[in-house]
Amino acid sequence: MIFPLADAQNVRKSGAKATYLAELVSAGFAIPRGFVLSADAYRAHLWACGQRQSATVSADAEVREAVRASMLAGEIPEDILSPIAEAYKRISWQTGLAEPKVAVRPSALDDAGFGGFPGAYESYLNVAGLDGLYVAIKRVWASLWSGKAAMYRSRFESLTDPAMAVIIQLMIPATATGTSFTANPVTGDPSVAQIIAKSAQDGSAHYAVDLRSMSVGRTTGDDLLAVSEDTLRQVAEQSILAEDALRSPVTVEWAAQREGLWILQANPIRDLPAYFPVDADYTQNTRWKKMDAEPLSYLARSISACPAPSKKTTSGRIAINGYLYARDEPAQASNDRNRTKEIDAATATLREWEKKIYPDLTARIGEHIACKLTDLTDSELAGILQTAASDARSAYDWMCRTQHPSVAPPDMLAELLNDRPLAWRLLGGVDDLILQRDAYLQELAERFVIAENAGRVDDEGWWKPYKHDVDQFVCDYTYAFTDNVDASDPARWSSWIEDRDAVFWIISAISRRGDSPTLVTLNCAAEQEAAVAEAAAMGAIAKNLHADFTRLLGLCRKWKLGRSQIEQSCARAGASIRLIVGEYARRLMADKTISCADDLYYVSVDELSSLKAADYPKLANRIAHRKHENWLERRLLAPDILPADEQPQTFGVDSADPSLHGIAAGEGIATGCARVVTTLSEASEIEPGDILVIPCHGAAWTPFMALAGGFVCGSGHDMRAEAVAARVYGIPAVVGCKGIESIRDGQKIAVDGSMGLVSAQDWRIKNQHNYFSKDLDASS
Hints:
The chain is α+β, with helices and mostly antiparallel strands.
């Protein structure tokens, strides 16, 4: 029932406040020594007082007062008193004080998701001696039944019976104490830390530490209070570090003395207002949609976005506070005229890609990747960087430009047929680059299995040609996105040329698929199924629609190939940028100008290509400054839609139906262990029959469907490559599924690909409204 503060890891026994402190102890913060009296001790005292049956969340005022009086008058059970005495004596021995002064604070087990009941319970400071400690503990317990606490429980509809742990910590003789906020709790601004400093003699004062420059300013307060700027900066720094440890903006209680700074407690700031400053002229008559959850690297901003958007910019993409936004064009009304226009536009776009863009772009990117960069002079390297950046910009433009045209025709086809599963079957069996790549990987995996069974893997005569074929595969395909939003920023990933282990992870996983049919066989079957479906569709629709149907079906099939070419070109273009930046980094690291290759992603393409030896001394300062700017950008809450008041409506989880809902993308029902993956190394551990669960769609995941029993994706569309691949393999699939962060790796789940449902018997939906996800109960 009693354990050291560092061991308060179970939020169900110690409450959130104690658990947060335990996390900070583990992270190495200066936390006053102490111990925790678990909620089990409170319940034992409640039983001893004879009030266990009365102490319910629905107790009225008379009952609450009776419970409160009994807890104050009753004796704490002996099996609790003895451990308390031992823990207190341990603090006495550690400090050399006969009766050390301690603070006695509550850590309640409130279940309200809004962040607990601040100020509802009593705390006691400067408690000395065992008798005083016992009284203080009982008073803290009893405060659980005060009128104020009951009012909070009623207001926030707390449903569980109250319980409380108690934190006992050594008091710190401080020259100043106070509270800090790592974001403005009123405006949500995370660029300024708010600090309240207090002194028993001199009153209190409010300060603001600008996190951009670490400058300190006094906002209000008593002029007699003198807290040094160094101390205030240290408070701000420690508070930010606490924020990192707890994965949320925090409010921190601190105490300063000559020996240093102590953290007394830290709690997340709940319901922090969204803060994202935007010039109103940017959003005037324009609606912007966020393309990515993270700020772009500075190099990517000079490729993927309008680098310095003006207030009257006509660019389709701009970087606002570092985040990539694209114009969100309103959907056109669905009618015959608009459908015809959209089909004509999609046809023209595809023709332009096939005839004008793809051949030359592919040739140039291939030259960049094959170029021996180490033989180039600095000026030649600068020239190839500019050309590669132009190609990467073009490829990304096409990736964004074709996002809608590549799925609009399949949607129109399904609408024309009034039968979406029939449209799925019609689009099966189409050859594209993703199919070719996955078939190549399966062939490499089969060769590896045969060699392993024959004991030839270590045979140089077998390994050398096999490795040559893997290297050829890497040169041909270069990379596949695990998340399509990464197409905007090559700083976030490494190509297969740089990291060949990723390819071997895929091969290793596929080699466990056993005797299941190959992808080529399955695709041939899907092609035959498509022919049967086409005949059925022609018989089901009116004759006057046959011409539209035939044209639309041909366009859909061509777009499947075209979209795979565009995604592959974007990945290869990004890989060429990474290789060129890597060569720059090699040269600058040799000169000791930079210490890390990734530092160069904090400069733009133009800055890097024009870099001269005379600029080297300034480069490190520029990189350091931009790293700090990028950190500040990451602290912002970037809205999905600008203007922010036009956010799409969101819906909570229905407690009566805890299933997750998404888009049905592959018929059937499957049950299995969830394999939640974000990297290829994690995906390589998938076992046959596992349910593959990924947060975002990307072509890198399709090879693993050869083993998966089902597929769940947090984004995507039922006509995208991943959904098509799932149908070829014949596994149930759900895409665009919101809330998949609640799925635990290894959890047994059921996937209904016909209805778009994902469920589990032991379902837990985490609180999705926190600034950062944190599966901890709220506390006071």
